[in-house]
Design a protein that fits this description.
The protein is mostly beta strands and 128 residues long. Helices cover 0% and strands 49% of the residues. Strand 7 and strand 8 form a beta hairpin. The relative contact order is 0.30.
Length: 128
C-alpha cells in the first residue's frame, strides 16, 4: 500500500517561498511510469494541478504557475518537494501530493482517474 504524507509550514508570509515535502512509503518514486504530483484547493474553489516530477526526474508545471514553481526530489529519502515563490494570499489553499499513473498526456493536468494515491493534504495560509 502506497502512502503519501505532506509536511511543511502552515503559515507563510507574503512574498516568501512556500516549501512543502511529500514523503512516500510503500513504493519508490523512481519506479517507471509514475508521476508525483502537487495539487491545491483554495477555499471555496476546485482542485488545481500545480505540476509533477516524473519517475525519470523530469518536471512539468501548470503554465499559470510555472514561473513561480519548482518541484525536486530526494531519491535517497523517497521524497519530493514543492517550492512556490513570491506567494500572495491567493496561494492560500490545502496542498496535496498524489501519484499519477502513466498519464495519457504528459505535461497536461492529469484526469481524475489517472490519480491513484493521495496524501491527506495540508493547509497553507499566506498572511502577514
Amino acid at each position: 500500500q502506497v502512502q503519501l504524507q505532506e509536511s511543511g509550514p502552515g503559515l507563510v508570509k507574503p512574498s516568501q517561498t512556500l516549501s512543502l515535502t511529500c514523503t512516500v512509503s510503500g513504493g519508490s518514486i523512481t519506479t517507471n511510469y509514475y508521476y508525483w504530483s502537487w495539487i491545491r484547493q483554495p477555499p471555496g474553489k476546485g482542485l488545481e494541478w500545480i505540476g509533477y516530477i516524473a519517475y525519470s526526474g523530469s518536471t512539468y508545471y501548470s503554465p499559470s504557475l510555472r514561473s513561480r514553481t519548482s518541484i525536486s526530489r530526494d531519491t535517497s529519502k523517497n521524497q519530493f518537494t514543492l517550492q512556490l515563490s513570491s506567494v500572495t494570499p491567493e496561494d492560500t489553499a490545502v496542498y496535496y501530493c498524489a501519484r499519477v499513473v502513466n498519464p495519457a498526456r504528459v505535461g497536461a493536468p492529469p484526469t481524475k482517474r489517472e490519480y491513484d494515491y493521495w496524501g491527506q493534504g495540508t493547509q497553507v495560509t499566506v498572511s502577514s
